[in-house]
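Fig. S4 source data, part A: sequence.
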Amino acid sequence: MLEGMRAREKKSRKRRNQKWFLYILRCSDRSLYTGVTTDLARRLKMHAEGKAARYTRTRRPLEMVYQETLRTRTEALVRECVVKALPKAKKLALIESFG
């Protein structure tokens, strides 16, 4: 699966030069939402307006508590899977290290 993603990435110069962001939002119910995007400001605005993920629509207001920059879409998606698999305590430790 990763090999296929890397092969597709090599075909597009635009994707290679684009920064990707992994971000974590804290929802009003204290739950955490993790996502990736190429335009962090636009994506956060979409979440705030209730036009992004279904999960965050009913859990507003949202607070961005973590972000990191990655070079490729593949790196961002792999990192997203790793972070989503962490127990909540480890996610909170990651957020603490950021802030």
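Fig. S4 source data, part B ends here. The chain has a mean pLDDT of 91.
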